[in-house]
Amino acid sequence: MGVHTSRIVWRWRVVDIVVASVIGVAAGVIFWLWGLAWPGLDTALAFTPGLSGLLAGGWLFAGVLGGLVIRKPGAALYTEIVAGVVSMALGTQWAFLTFVWAVVEGLGAELGFALLLYTNWRLLGALTSGFLAGVSVAIMDTSFSSVAALSAEARAVYFVSAVVSGILIAGVLSWVIVRALAATGALDRFAVGREVRAREVAAPDAA
Fold first, then answer.
1. For residue 201, what are the domain limits?
2. What would the pLDDT profile of 162-185 be if each residue is shown by its tens digit?
3. Which of 82, 95, 124, 144 is the most buried (most CB within 10 A)?
4. Is the pTM of this model over 0.70?
5. Would you call 85 helix, strand, or coil by DSSP?
6. How many domains does the structure of the chain reveal?
């Protein structure tokens, strides 16, 4: 049914902090590279004003990914902030605003898991987290960035595009990545790794 546990585990282990930090750093490098590619990609999507919102998910997946792996309150916010800080440190055209956006995006991703009471870590949890991360960046971009200067129609296109990007890139893609990593045994110290491996063991028996 998508619910793995009814008990929220608040206490972070050392391995949780380490792995969440590694995810954040790796995602931060990808954020930075995505920022370098953004001008060209934005130009390619300029045929429809506002369609560049489809690129937003490239800066949203860290929080969803971290939440799905760590499964602790605060994990989504933490990994997104770490990613934003790393991206900012490497040098982005948005400077300190990168950190501000990361906090808001992380809060959006965190809220997705919180609304499900930190009990759903399957696709529904990923989609909800990605959706709200997309909503958060859509609000920020259409209110406080250059997107705010666009027409109302273009801002609406941007808003919807950013939310869709959050669902697909941050939500679906993060879920696929976590399952792929778990299948390799890399996440065996986490619940998601044990669950995926257990299903693999059970599958031959069921056959």
1. 14-206
2. 999 999 999 999 999 999 999 999
3. 82
4. yes
5. helix
6. 1
